[in-house]
Amino acid sequence: MNRNPLETILGALVLLVAAVFLVFAYTTADLRQVQGYPVRASFTKVGGLTVGGEVRLAGIQVGSVTGQRLDPQTFEAVVDMTVLESVQLPVDTRAVITSDGLLGGSYIKLIPGNEADTLQPGDSLQYTQDYQSLEDLVGEIIFLATQPAGGGGGG
Question: Where do the Mce/MlaD domain residues begin and end (predicted)?
Fold first, then answer.
């Protein structure tokens, strides 16, 4: 088989461009987990939250989800996460699992409280709100819409 040198050069060029693209995509995408102190939170439903997911405060990533497991006593999902050392969260901080739009993934939104005491490494967030899917919301709306108007019986 006789190969054309031009085909070989073009093939090598395509592979080089693909490698440059992969290096560019890896370096610009923030795929690393945030290093910080560990905290955990328990939820009855985590939706599509995954390990490596973001933990945000005021829309800014301040942490990463590092693990998920099922508590065999309470049957709740325990989510382990790290939070940046520079972010000292009050002990009454609330953790909410929410989605990043209709097609986006899930992340943990932190809503800081007002307490003076702060969370220490390894502490658990006491106030959590479970993931609420679009199907759950539509079901609630339909349930409310099918209820009879007026709540009392008069007679």
Answer: 35-113
